[in-house]
Amino acid sequence: MAKYHITGIFVVANPAEAATEVFTSALHGQTGVDTAVVVTPSSVEPSVLANIGRLFEEAGIEYQHIAWDQDESLATGLADVVATSQETARMAETQSWLWFITDDGVVNETTLANQLKAVEISPSVAVAGAKQLSDRHLINVGLTVARNGDVLSMIEPGELDQGQYDHRTDTFAVSLPGMLIKTDVWVDLEGFDTLTPELAQTVDVCWRARLAGHRVAVVPSAEVQHETAAVEPDIADAWAASRWLRLKHTGFFGFIGGWIWGWFAALGVLLAGLFVKDPGTGVAQARGIVRTLMRPVALWSSQKEARSSRTRPYDAVAELRPSRARVRDHRRSVLEVSEPDRVVGDGTGSSSTPQQATGGHDDFEELATPERNWVGIGAVTLTVLFGAVAVLGLRHLLGVPALAGGNLLPVSTD
């Protein structure tokens, strides 16, 4: 295996609650980091930093601490560390990479080793992600972006890992926990864009890396374990992030047209929420869209910065984006899983009912479950009903000759 200089970037949002395994799993792996940086909020307690320092001392790895507020650029805070890593790698004639670890994920002992094997086999890969798991339940194996800017995993909630996605390599984007990125690429892209909503910053980096001519891949054999499954983000935050991504990575006319269309879209989702008797969701979606549309200057500045590193056309990533039909099918399946009409038994999938002989056949009969009706069936029914009433009420006017000439004169009162 080629030699690499790995700088571990431990982004710890809640240092006091971070599990010890977050650090030890990364420091004592089959392939360890050469140096490390611990990024915490400026309000971290000194005693917490002392405990973290002991973990690095036991592993024999030097580290630096950076107090970072999220309104500042992480790339700026890491500039000195990154420059030192690049110089160290140059003197040792090795490649410099940054490996991101977050406080909500625990890597296993072979995660980094498997990622380095992947980038050694495919030198064109500049960003290598990991499979995200919660116990045996899949969270994502790479991410993609729908045409409307929604970030999707294309995996159903609660789906078990049985190796069904281990064939995935090239992907649109990866998650931040366990993300391995070339230091040179990180510098060229200037790291995370602080103007971009935090929810979409990692996807934005991968998107810009793709448009800069680099490959983004996921390594299914590299795993990151999470204590709980991914929590659904706030509706307004998700819609603001998706609208931002949609407007940022497009041309001038697409930007102008998309910004104008966004106002109609906000009105549309608001009315749709009232139409399906879910006004809260409609208001949240509209609020997210408007939040992005109200920042045209910041959005234009963000797009301008992204253009400085772009070397490929915007449609170069089109093959990695799912079709509208696939997105529609995925959302329908997610809806059916997250909002079942009826739960049989205790929800575990098992039953206390005695098993019956199958007669030597392995096939089974699918359980009959109530089908989900279309959400707009009520509106269509009302429209048809009111139309029938109107026709019934005006039936005497049907077939009557049109009024013309003297028939239009008022009746004389003489």
Low-confidence stretches: 342-347, 355-371
Alpha-beta classification? alpha/beta
> Given the structure, what is the number of helices?
13
Mean pLDDT: 85
User: Which sheet architecture does the biggest sheet show?
Assistant: 9 strands, mixed
Order of helices and strands: EHEHEHHEEHEEEEEHHEHHHHHH
Shape: elongated
Tell me the distance between the termini: 111 Å
How helix-rich are the residues, as a percent range? 25-40%
Query: What is the radius of gyration?
Result: 28 Å
* Beta-strand percent range: 5-15%
Give a count of the beta strands, DSSP E runs of length 2 or more: 11
List the helices and strands and how they pair.
Elements lengths: L3 E8 L8 H8 L7 E6 L5 H14 L3 E5 L6 H4 L1 H13 L3 E8 L3 E2 L3 H11 L3 E10 L2 E4 L3 E2 L5 E2 L27 E3 H7 L11 H11 L3 E11 L9 H14 L3 H24 L3 H15 L2 H12 L16 H15 L38 H17 L21
Parallel strand pairs: 1-2, 1-4, 2-3, 6-11
Antiparallel strand pairs: 4-10, 5-11, 6-7, 6-10, 8-9
Summarize it.
This protein is α/β, with parallel strands linked by helices and 414 residues long. 40% of the residues lie in helices and 15% in strands. The strands form 2 sheets. Strands 1, 2, 3, 4, 5, 6, 7, 10 and 11 form a 9-stranded mixed β-sheet that branches. A two-stranded antiparallel sheet has the order 8-9.
Describe the structure.
- The chain is elongated and about 110 Å long.
- It is built from 13 helices and 11 strands.
- The chain is of the alpha/beta class and 414 residues long.
- The protein has helices spanning 20-27, 46-59, 74-77, 79-91, 111-121, 183-189, 201-211, 235-248, 252-275, 279-293, 296-307, 324-338, 377-393; strands at 4-11, 35-40, 63-67, 95-102, 106-107, 125-134, 137-140, 144-145, 151-152, 180-182, 215-225.
- The strands form 2 sheets. Strands 1, 2, 3, 4, 5, 6, 7, 10 and 11 form a 9-stranded mixed β-sheet that branches.
